């Protein structure tokens, strides 16, 4: 079941189930944390998104997420780099992007 509003649901305690959301829901969720409205996600903004989703090790994971997705090494994730962030989220955060 895809999320309907804002933040993704917290991962279940067993960690065996992935959170599901569509690509559009994922982008909208991240956009909520784009505090400066520049259309890019910074390490700090990603950290706040992870913290809001109840994740652990948010500083470490946000830094790793930005480094893994930031192809042009400007310190931000833009629309062109979103597919790399999705790969990171799928592998490291237990988020599955689905199409409905």
TrEMBL record:
SMART domains, sorted: EFh
Domain of life where this protein originates: Eukaryota
Classification via PROSITE patterns: EF_HAND_1, EF_HAND_2
UniProt entry keywords in alphabetical sequence: Calcium, Repeat
One example GO MF annotation: calcium ion binding
UniProt keyword Glycosyltransferase, yes or no: no
SUPFAM superfamilies: EF-hand (SSF47473)
Domain EF-hand: 21-56
Protein's UniProt keywords contain Repeat: yes
PANTHER family: CALCIUM BINDING PROTEIN (PTHR23050)
Protein name: EF-hand domain-containing protein
């Amino acid at each position: 079941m895809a999320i309907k509003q804002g933040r993704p649901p917290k991962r279940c305690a067993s960690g065996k189930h992935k959170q599901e959301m569509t690509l559009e829901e994922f982008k909208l969720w991240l956009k909520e944390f784009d505090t400066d409205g520049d259309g890019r996600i910074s390490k700090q903004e990603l950290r706040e998104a992870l913290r809001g989703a109840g994740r652990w090790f948010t500083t470490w994971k946000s830094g790793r997420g930005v480094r893994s997705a930031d192809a042009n090494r400007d310190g931000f994730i833009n629309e062109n780099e979103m597919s790399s962030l999705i790969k990171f989220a799928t592998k490291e955060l237990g988020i599955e992007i689905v199409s409905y």
